[in-house]
Amino acid sequence: MNAPGLLDRADARELGARLKAARTAAEVTQEVAAARIGAARTTIVAIERGDRRLGGEELLALCELYGVSVGRMLRADTVRVDLAPQFRRTAQAEADPAAGEATRLLQESATRYVELERRLGRPLEPDYPPPRRIQRGQAPEQAEDAAAELRARLGLGQSPIPDLLSLIESELRIRLFVLPLPARISGAYACHEEIGACILINANHAPTRQAWTAAHELGHFMTDRHSAEVLRADAGFDDPAEQFANRFASALLMPAPAVRSRFRELTEAQGRFSPRALVYLALAFHVSVEAAARRLEQLRLFKKGTFEALQAAGLNAAAVRGIAGNGTDAAPASAAVGRFLPRYTQIALEAYEQELISEGELARMLHLGRIETRELLDELDAWIDAVDDAQGLNGSAIGEAVRHAGA
After folding, report:
1. Coil, strand, or helix at residue 117?
2. How high is the pLDDT of residue 37?
3. Would you kindly state where each structural domain of the chain is located, as residue ranges?
4. Virtual torsion, Cα 293, 288, 131, 80, nearest 10 deg
5. Residue 230 vs residues 77, 129, 175, 200: alpha-carbon distances, Å
6. Mean pLDDT, all residues of the chain
7. pTM for the predicted model, two decimal places
8. Which of 24, 48, 235, 387 is the most exposed place for a label (fewest CB within 10 A)?
9. Backbone phi, then psi, for 348, in 5-degree steps?
10. What integer pLDDT is reported at residue 334 of this predicted model?
11. Which fold would CATH assign to domain 1-78?
12. Reduced to 3 DSSP states, what percent helix, strand and coil does the chain have, rounded to the nearest 5?
């Protein structure tokens, strides 16, 4: 890439806006940026406004500081999105470093995703339901209704959802990312006109927890297309929007009629509803035991505090695994290849195969080490070779059968 030539032709205002977005995402102050290029803070202000052009060495120094490539800053199809103001409205990104990390990761992943889609000619056409407005004091009832309507829209009826993440991506066309996050962060949600709706899920969490996080963030998507949210593992649910998202997740994953029906069946079969029945219920709806217990409390099939009483009585993860056999929570899916393969990963691999990005860029996009990335590529190559060999063998067998038939 001829960076000096591109820099000369670059629109100063657009480049300045991109540099400002990159600086904000990297949480670098104007003072620090100015010091890196040996200038006053007012120089950075002028550069970001497009009032002052910068030289090649200055651009290289700022890109290194912000952790972005010079090529991305100069390329015409680079997507410029700054989600920080949306997250600031919820007072999350600045108050909690872990939340800020999730914010930056979601912005970086979403913008890179859209750029590669455009370069590959593979745009993701959204199919969003209209947003709903939460009425004061009616969040639980509205959440139940919204979940039922979305289930009807997706043709789910009362059936359990074995793979919610794939459903969100394939049917609603929401950009979904499953990437490593700090343990205390479950996920994040944002919606922007340039990149659409995006949900980030912690790849280090168990599948049932990932599904719950996805359902919770989907609840925010159902009501708000203008703000953003980071879900902490220890989050409270006092805010109406959080109450709606929490109840929506329960109702979407565990529809009330189906839960009541399964509850009656299990109670009649055993004469009472036992801890073993609770584990079976969780397995049936692909949720955690705690989520199943909380849902039973919501539907008044359990008294409030029942789950805490069960915990005190020894219902822990080991006990659940003993009852369930292989447990309700399998090992977390890999950030790149696992139980759920996000379209984001597929797009990144396709871009690499077409030499639109380097192996190093692929590693950064998938948040893998270079060795892990190379192992992944070698494994994928082996799978491709196996498929090609099988197709060739099948083709030979079919050809032989046709020749014998003709004879």
Report:
1. helix
2. 92
3. 1-78, 256-324, 343-406
4. 150
5. 28, 22, 16, 9
6. 82
7. 0.77
8. 387
9. -65, -45
10. 38
11. 434 Repressor (Amino-terminal Domain) (1.10.260)
12. 60, 5, 35
